[in-house]
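Hello,

Following up on my earlier ticket. Below are the two sequence lines again, exactly as submitted.
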Amino acid sequence: MVTRDSDTMIEAGAEKRFFIEMLTKDIELLPSIVDLVDNSVDGARGLHPDGDLTGQWVRIEATDESFTISDNSGGITVDNARHYAFRFGRSKDFTGLKRSVGQFGVGMKRAIFKIGGEFELQSTYRSRDGGRDGSRFSVHVDVEEWAIQKEWTFEFSDLQENATLANDERSGTTIKVTRLHPSVRDDLNDPSVLQLLRTELRLRHQESIQSGLSILVNGETPLSASRPSLQSSLILKPIYKQIRLENDGGVVDVKLYAGTIAPPKRDQDADPEDDGRAENFQDPGDAGWYLFCNDRLLLVADRSLVTGWGNPAAAYHPQYRLFRGFVFLYADNASLLPWNTTKTAVDRDSPVFRAVQSQMKTALVAVQAVINRGKQVRARLEEGEAKPELLSALDETSDQPISSLTTSQFMIAPLSPPTKRREVLTAKISRIQYVVDPDRYKEVAQALGASSASEVGRLTFDYFYDQEIN
Amino acid sequence: MAKQYEFRPAKAAQRRMIVDACRRLTAIASLDQFQYVGFGGLEFIDFVEFHRGLGLPQMTSIEKDSYIQHRLEFNKPYNSIKVLMGEARDRLPEVDWTKLSISWLDYTDVLTTDILRDVDYVIRSCIPGSILIVTVNGASTGVPLPERLEKLRSKLGELVDDGLQEKEMNGWGPARIERKILHDAAYSAAREAHGLPFRQLFNFEYADDAKMLTWGGIVTSSAIDRTIDSCRFEDLQFVRTGVEAFEISVPVLTEREFTYLEAELVGSTGALPKIKGVDSKDIEAFAQMYRWRVGSR
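Thanks for your patience. The regenerated structure is below:
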């Protein structure tokens, strides 16, 4: 029989230093800052169940000495601070917010440890009914000292419970991290890193920004976010499916959009044959899939096997550069959603993701099919021939915000024009292409009286044929 | 052209067997709820068979050879057949997959990754209770034994098991590898899209000319799996849910011999009938397929 006596006990406690190191090892600086913003966004959304975040703000300020994030998202209750907010990992009895982004109960602490050696968190909480049970508190921690302590606790300073807040007093949270780690200080001083941070926040929180949230980084201009859009008209309509996945733990609502965007101007003028020439490959840019969980963006312009590229759809090729897909997953119980802990990718083993993934794959095949048809029709198009409806739809339809779309199980696009008989003949042509000195080209063009490169080509070929072959 | 049936008797019998199995789908929905998706070619033989056998009203044919479009429109036996011109992968998304479907991807080529993508797409897109059938060339006819494995690898890459040996590539060897690859692809696509693996029902080997594999089954889900059990597909002697294939071979016999054997066979529980001079293997083969033999009525 095993007795609980000291001879039979084996130490298996965690060393705090090791813990801090492990926690911060696998996350980069920018995602960890985005993670901090997640908390502010959750707070703001908690204040506005209707989703309108106008008037809510999150401010980030980075200087040589400190990194500060503050918000007016309502603050943290003393009870929440005491029992949940500072714990590492989410406690089982924490009921959490509906549709939250915060999920694992590590984001805030991990971000703080990642950034510096000392922090102060101040919170002002206003009770919902504006009564007297508001609170203010602050927590000040020297991480080095804390790492030496045996206890896994922090301590309140300035704790005020049952406080009455002035009407114009901001209720929210401020976290100031000081004694910045040297590499973090360098990064936060680097304008290009700050620019990346802005881009990342703009992208990852685009839905909240669209809903009115102001995010400010070292300045007074709130970040703007792009509004996801797809080409849509009566004759060209993207896929928009709404799917409800029921799971043991609850319901996940899915909105899936897939289609094309209008070609940028330079594309419309480009020779469509460029598709096959590697030296002209254009930057795939933003092509691919975007996947949001409770409005937080996880996958950005994904063109990997995970979202169907390569199987069952064709692998990425520049001809698909106008493809865009947007998937929004919503769950009251955020643990149903396929986050990984750093929120930089999806948890591929999640059954919810598997079901969604399958829908993404078939949608991608369907959109590729329309793009392929467009390419085939374009290849058959003869000089001077009027653009068939399919091509004018793909080239000229403008983008509409996806929020204005109505559901469609299919991608709707004009039919390809029927293949004409004479194409049997034109299919058996050889095409010549070569590069010449522009001055000499001009001379030849002038001598021939030709107005285009293709005319110069044909006339010079005919000339040679007449002189040498005939 | 009209004699095509007789030229490819095993294929014709197989078509009837599959139609016969599909009759059992009534447990899932009335048959007119199903649509047929196929590669009708110029003759639309399968379309006629499926329409006459099951009454399916809605049918779609995909044809890659765009130069025969006018002839296709002329040859299609029912005006309602929708003909989509182009590669299957570009046109399959235009099929209305919100309806139950019986899809027969009837290729003449050996299995390729392009074909697997079509299979993957159909399985993911169709709703549970739908049937998918795939026919591919058994990859052995006309290719010398030492080159068969290489040919298969060039088409399918790493999907071909590393441990395979050239000597396994004789006879039906390549077709069996193709079946496994199809099965594995369908298994995981269906599990991902519908929560349960694909249920194989068909695994035919036949050789009217080239060795061919016809493989297929039904897409299921937890909501419908019990209903599929109640279709009792396994009662049909040609249904094969595993690795072992059902080989269709049509013996070369005279009409008089056929008639005699049929008269003796039906209802008999004893030994197979015999005809002097006719190989007992041929009689066995006949007993396996006489009900679906085309030309018997």
